[in-house]
Amino acid sequence: MRFIIPVFVAYLLVPRLTLGDNWPSWRGPHGTGVSAESNLPTTWSHEDNVHWKVPLPGPGNSTPVVWGDRVFVTCANPAGTTRSLLSFHFADGTKRWQADVQYADEEKSHKTNPQCSPSPVTDGHCVAAWFGSAGLHVYDMDGKKLWEADLGKFEHIWGYAASPVIYQDLVILSAGPGLSAFLVAFDKQTGKEVWRQSPPESISEKVDEFRGSWATPVFYQDGNRTLMLCSLPLQLLALDPTTGEEVWRCRGPSKLCYASPLVQDDIVVMMCGYHGPSMAVRTGGSGDVTESHRLWINEDKKLNPQRVGSGVIVGDYIYILNEPGIAWCMDLKTGQIQWEQRLGGKSWSSMIHAAGHLYAVNMDGDCFVLAADPQECKVLHTNKVGELTRASLAPANGKILIRTYEHLYCIGK
Questions:
Q1: Is the torsion defined by CA of 330, 336, 338, 341 positive or negative?
Q2: Is the separation of the CB atoms in 176 and 164 below 8 Å?
Q3: What is the pLDDT of residues 156-177, one digit of tens each?
Q4: What is the pTM of this model?
């Protein structure tokens, strides 16, 4: 039987500091948006059930991560010249430390995508943050710089967003998009480059070409091997994370990929942006598996609204909040739509699941709590914080963290 493995082996080895669950990376401990929390809040506002709220030094789209009593979030000043990793106490929101990196050169991005969009990642021993052209930076848990890597300049009219991940002793990054785009792994202790993979389909010919991946890789266990899934232009790629060698690939995607892959048991789902295809692939193959392992592909634009945030798999169904603010439920094995309902506003938020509840937030700061019900869309609560956000929610230790363009909120009962 195939099952998803934790992205962080160290997650199982470091003593737990609280009774709650850590949220150590983009989309949680397994990269799937699924939380083991069983007692999260379901109602709040900008005042009610706010455990604490702290101001941030600038706007940003990255999501906080949590390890024990430590919260980490990336942020840039409005000009993008100072790029920072901040650490807060989970208990009361007081700031532990702030590590700044200066970058004075111009770096292109869209006005809706400020610098430092990638979320940080931690394994309880170190924390890594990617600052685009300002490099990959790794710190210990108290903010001491361990190493940094200059990955060159990244040029794309929409900027960058993929978050680094940790696997065993490696820090891995899907760097790009733009004129420079590649997958790279570094030794977590020394910062030495271990491998690099440069799929030619990922590289743009010009800065304003509509091509690229902003998706974060996801790990899963396929039999007795661990593979890394990468949503890339024109292909879904499965690599050996220790060597970077390709194991299998599936054709069908478009040139634009925002959402991270979704995986459950032996099925992987990839969804493209800008009305590009969505598809599902059975794992277990090798080489080009397009004909042998692709379960379904939806290529009709009507079946693929603009998607930036990632969905979540619960049982045999996929739940996702599309950018136009329309929630969908889809059959995992067929790709058929079970239901759709407009929730309002626009959203880049990825959906999370905990204890039968689905959580997502739109750009207006309206946080939706839905029942994970494939028969109908049941909106249980709509909670308003009234601030612009393009980040996703982060559940941990019985609380929910919300990162807006102005504040970091900790929501509790």
A1: positive
A2: no
A3: 999 999 999 999 999 999 999 9
A4: 0.93
